[in-house]
Amino acid sequence: VQLQASGGGLVQSGGSLRLSCTSPGRLLKTFVYAAAWFRQAPGKVREFVGVKHWGGPYASYADSVKGRFTISTDSAENMIYLQMDSLKSEDTAIYFCAVRTRPLAVFTNAARQPSNYDKWGQGTQVTVSS
Q: Hey, is 58 helix, strand or coil?
């Protein structure tokens, strides 16, 4: 099962963008324990953006995006969203959705490690112009 991410694009600094991620042909709620977003800027390592427990309100975010980005999940639409507001030029990166199919405490350092996620989307480019 692969994930499919979309919604990236070019936006001005201070603007907003919403990224989407789905699993074509399979309901996310049947196998996702936690849903996360990571990003990777040119020449940099992939970094944690945020993670949310699928079935509840618990979420954790990187300090750099806290208060500006929000992860949500929608079982009816079979979607994982990343709402990005007050975008800055330093948010420019390829954004990846990822899911964990086994229990994982979202407030731990383990939840911020890419290696702890089982399935990934292909990435979508976000470019913020200053």
A: coil
Q: Are strands 59-61 and 69-74 parallel, antiparallel or unpaired?
A: unpaired
The CB-side HSE value for 85 (13 A sphere, CA atoms) comes to 7
Paired residues of 11 in beta bridges = 128
- Dihedral (C-alpha) 120, 128, 109, 63: value to the nearest 10 degrees? -160
Q: Is 14 exposed, middle or buried (0-12, 13-18, 19+ CB in 10 A)?
A: exposed
Q: Check whether 58 has a pLDDT greater than 90.
A: yes
Radius of gyration of the chain measured on its C-alpha atoms: 14
Instruction: List beta partners, residue 40.
Output: 94
* Closest among 99, 87, 92, 97 to 123, alpha carbons compared: 97
pLDDT at 36 over 90: yes
CA distance 68 to 95: 15
Q: Which of 77, 78, 112 is nearest to 98 (CA)?
A: 112
The closest of 9, 1, 35, 30 to 128, measured between CA atoms, is 9
Q: Closest Cα partner for 130 from 94, 85, 88?
A: 88
